[in-house]
Amino acid sequence: MAERGGPLEAAPLPAEVRESLAELELELSEGDITQKGYEKKRAKLLARYVPLVPGVNLSLPAENKIPGPSQTTAVPKQKSRPTTSRDERFRSDVHTEAVQAALAKYKERKMPMPSKRRSVLAHSSVGAYTPPDTSSASEDEGSLRRPGRLASTPLQSHPSVEPWLDRVIQGSSTSSSASSTSSHLGARPAAAPSTAAATALAGLVAHTHIGVPVNSRVSSKIQQLLNTLKRPKRPPLKEFFVDDFEELLEVQQPDPNQPKPEGDQMVVLKGEPLSVGAPWPPSLLAALQHWGTTQPKAPCLTALDTAGKAICTLTYGKLWSRSLKLAYTLLNKLTSKNEPLLKPGDRVALVFPNSDPVMFMVAFYGCLLAELVPVPIEVPLTRKDAGSQQVGFLLGSCGVTLALTTDACQKGLPKAQTGEVAAFKGWPPLAWLVIDGKHLVKPPKDWHPVALDAGTGTAYIEYKTSKEGSTVGITVSHASLLAHCRALTQACGYSEAETLTNVLDFKRDAGLWHGVLTSVMNRMHVVSIPYALMKVNPLSWIQKVCSYKAQAALVKSRDMHWSLLAQRGQRDVSLSSLRMLIVADGANPWSISSCDAFLNVFQSRGLRPEVICPCASSSEALTVAIRRPPDLGGPPARKAVLSMSGLSYGVIRVDTEEKLSVLTVQDVGQVMPGASVCVVKVEGTPYLCKTDEVGEICVDSSATGTAYYGLLGITKTAFETVPITAGGVPVSDRPFTRTGLLGFIGPDSLVFVVGKLDGLMVVGVRRHNADDVVATALAVEPMKFVYRGRIAVFSVTVLHDDRIVLVAEQRPDASEEDSFQWMSRVLQAIDSIHQVGVYCLALVPANTLPKAPLGGIHISETKQRFLEGTLHPCNVLMCPHTCVTNLPKPRQKQPEVGPASMIVGNLVAGKRIAQASGRELSHLEDSDQARKFLFLADVLQWRAHTTPDHPLFLLLNAKGTVTSTATCVQLHKRAERVAAALMEKGRLRVGDHVALVYPPGVDLIAAFYGCLYCGCVPVTVRPPHPQNLGTTLPTVRMIVEVSKSACVLTTQAITRLLRSKEAAAAMDIRTWPTILDTDDMPKKKVASIFRPPSPDVLAYLDFSVSTTGILAGVKMSHAATSALCRSIKLQCELYPSRQIAICLDPYCGLGFALWCLCSVYSGHQSVLVPPLELESNVSLWLSAVSQYKARVTFCSYSVMEMCTKGLGAQTAVLRMKGVNLSCVRTCMVVAEERPRVALTQSFSKLFKDLGLPARAVSTTFGCRVNVAICLQGTAGPDPTTVYVDMRALRHDRVRLVERGSPHSLPLMESGKILPGVKVIIAHTETKGPLGDSHLGEIWVSSPHNATGYYTVYGEEALHADHFSARLSFGDSQTIWARTGYLGFLRRTELTDASGEPHDALYVVGSLDETLELRGMRYHPIDIETSVIRAHRSIAECAVFTWTNLLVVVVELDGLEQDALDLVALVTNVVLEEHYLVVGVVVLVDPGVIPINSRGEKQRMHLRDGFLADQLDPIYVAYNM
Question: Residue 646 belongs to what H/E stretch?
Answer without folding.
Answer: helix 644-648
